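Quick start: read one record
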Amino acid sequence: MLVSLFRRRSAGEALALYRVAVAQARAEAFYRRLGVPDSVDGRFELVALHLWLLCRRLKGEPTAARFLQELVEVFFADMDVSLRELGAADIGVGRRVKRMVEAFHGRAAAYDGALAAGTPALREALARNLYGTVASEPAQLDAMAAYVGEAEARLASQPETNLLAGRASFPPPPGAVP
């Protein structure tokens, strides 16, 4: 019974944090100024990027393991609902969500490795994933790579307790009008 009560509380806070990531991913500047495709794929990629940043920040925190599980579950539950709203047949939704799960974990591994390897590797990972369906400009890749670094630093400065309570702050997207 106690686990169930904790899980519901955690899920609500995970949902709140997920909504922060989605709100940031919907910022118009990513699409208009930075050329991220304004499509289902482009929106998935931006949400996945922001969710990865949050997961990266919380990974390794002793009290965050269950929360991280809830956060990722919220993401995939949202993807399931979104696919159904887009008209995907019930029989195919499970397979598509499974591919999205694999894609997210692949992105997370690619971005983790790229961040460790430096800016050129991060630019390449962003070109391959975030801009995977369109050609990207070098200036856009530079701006997105800088944004990822800035977002990581900003999240690192925020207390774990804020994130576990569903609160986070991302920097404004490059070129966003205040």
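The chain is about 75% helix and 0% strand.
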